[in-house]
Amino acid sequence: xxxxxxxxxxxxxxxHLGPLVESDDVCNSSDDAHSTVCGDDxxxxxxxxxxxxxxxxSLGVLDIRIDKRWIVSW
Length: 74
Hints:
Structural class: mainly beta
Largest sheet: 5 strands, antiparallel
Number of helices: 0
Radius of gyration: 15 Å
Strand content: over 45%
Order of helices and strands: EEEEEEE
Helix content: under 10%
Number of strands: 7
Shape: elongated
Strand order of the largest sheet: 1-2-5-4-3
């Protein structure tokens, strides 16, 4: 997954299923702010890790286009 941000960066994320959630709604961030775990009771957690941070914009990134070869942002 790819996301733009008002901090002038583009983040490339890796998403995968984590273990089952056994308690009520859970949403935690790691100490290094590179992963977030969220889920509902009885469902798998989704783990998101930042794989790369692309820098170079002078304003927030509001639009992104992606194909098999390129990430274009403006």
